[in-house]
Amino acid sequence: MVLVRSTIFALVTLQLLNSINCAPVNQSTSGTTTQSNSISTIKAIGTSTTTATTSPLTSSKTTTTLSSSTSKTTSKNHFQVYLQVYLQVYLQGYLQVYFQTTAKSSPTEKPDAATDKKTNADDGKNTADTSGTTGVASRVSVSTSKTACSNKKVDFTKNLGGWKEEYGSTNLYEITSQGLRMKLLAPNEYIPKIDNSTGLPYNLYEGTGPTFNPPNYMQYGKFTATIKAAPEGGAVTAIILIADNGDEIDYELIGADDQHAQTNYFWGQQPVVGVNGGIHDVSGSIYSQFHTYTINWTPEKIDWIIDGEKVRTKNMKDTCSGGVCKYPTHPARVQIGLWDGSRESGTAEWAHGPINWSKTKVISSYIKELTVECNPEYNTIS
Ligand SMILES: *[C@@H]1O[C@H](CO)[C@@H](O)[C@H](O)[C@H]1NC(C)=O
Ligand SMILES: *[C@@H]1O[C@H](CO)[C@@H](O)[C@H](O)[C@H]1NC(C)=O
Ligand SMILES: *[C@@H]1O[C@H](CO)[C@@H](O)[C@H](O)[C@H]1NC(C)=O
After folding, report:
1. N or C: fewer beta carbons within 10 Å in the chain?
2. Where does the record locate the signal sequence feature (predicted)?
3. Which atom of ligand 3 is nearest to the CA of 356?
4. Tens digits of per-residue pLDDT, 311-324?
């Protein structure tokens, strides 16, 4: 009964939160809208607290995927976002436990104890765990079927190879001899501001950039992207693996920070900010030259590899404590994007921005080629 009451409480609270959050949102009705893509959303969470003075609970950020360029009311504060995420996680957990205790255990589901023991005892060698889940993740979402994944090499000098711009915006990219040119367009008005609480600059309005998604998901595997980043401070070229539950593995190439690449990962059920990032040297300019950026994601570890050289490894077992491994395990998509990190002062500082739109109206980055190799143990490969 306690369980049922808690569940109802969580449901009601979620609905309340949603109604609060949705009230001011003005959904766009035409093609003349600007977008705030999911990459920028997640990056904004992941990076804004690199400024110690920026409180993640009070700084506002855009969380809806579509916002009209005239309506600037589509932001939630971090508190609401986190509360919502936690409630969703707890609610899922409750329901899972509820069904496990009231219904007969399905033979395809592993008992939690066994999974936890495996996670703890196997020291990272649990390749037989075909659910691909660990720790708490196995309780919240147990996937038993394989992911439909496509081994692919896309030559972006020819076409999009099945990748699609998230909102179908055709003005934000073009196919060129250098590959897919992603375009970040200036906002209608450039209004630089100073954030009174941090003393840092930001822009009142952000530019609009594209986000590309592939048709397929991949649960473990490898991708390599050949990219030339956008040069202007405040512009972020991103190539990431992102799951529907928020698990994420990233490269972020920051304008005005030549010869560096940033890496990060998030455990979707409890995304922590300013904790899991890394900064790595790149030999040669990330703006004026193409470099290859690889992520090799296995159940045991994540390797980040630039120009064929491993720059970082994160072992799954090093993410575990108290039987919970905070490691990305869910089927994810390779997402490519170019976004403006200028609208929140902490993010703008991290991104070496805000963008000075009086110098330029269009900022570009290029992706020439992308290969995806799905892990055959966890994916049905086409
Ligand atoms: C939403 O947009 C409509 C039409 O542009 C406008 O009349 C309305 O006041 C807006 N609502 C909010 C909450 O901004
Ligand atoms: C920030 O400071 C400026 C200049 O002192 C002031 O005009 C403005 O009202 C302040 N804004 C906020 C939100 O406090
Ligand atoms: C933006 O660039 C212009 C032209 O180079 C310059 O005059 C202006 O001071 C810059 N603005 C900021 C806020 O740096």
Report:
1. N
2. 1-22
3. 1
4. 999 999 999 999 99
HEC profile for 173-219? Answer: EEEECCEEEEEEECCCCCCEEECCCCCCEEECCCCECCEEECCCCEC
Q: Is 248 a catalytic residue?
A: yes
Ramachandran sector of residue 308 (left: φ over 0; alpha: ψ -120 to 50; beta: rest): left
* Pocket-testing residue among 71, 72, 73, 74, ligand 1, by greatest number of atoms within 8 A of Cβ: 71
Backbone angles phi, psi at 176, to 5 degrees: -130, 175
Residue 14 CA to residue 88 CA, distance in Å, equals 8
Best mutation site among 20, 22, 25, 26 for ligand 1 pocket (most ligand atoms within 8 Å of CB): 26
Is pTM beyond 0.70 here? no
Ordered structural domains, the chain, with CATH: 2-140 (no CATH), 147-381 (2.60.120.200)
